[in-house]
Amino acid sequence: MRITLLFTALFLAACAQDETDWPNLLPIEDVLAEAPAPTTDPSPALESRAAALEARAAALRGNVITQGSLPGY
Q1: Greatest distance between any 2 Cα atoms in the chain
Q2: Which residues of the chain have pLDDT under 50?
């Protein structure tokens, strides 16, 4: 029991010594104003990625084992 109290006291003492300041908070409008505007349209890349994923899903669906598809089961 004493060792638990000792470690708890040491932990709390270590936490109490932390005197760092909180970060400065900025309004969201200022943050958004500094963000660069997107320069390219991501639609073609997203469409090609979606097509590739759909093709992969279709290929994976091809060999599904169902009940009754294996002999003896």
Answers
A1: 72
A2: none
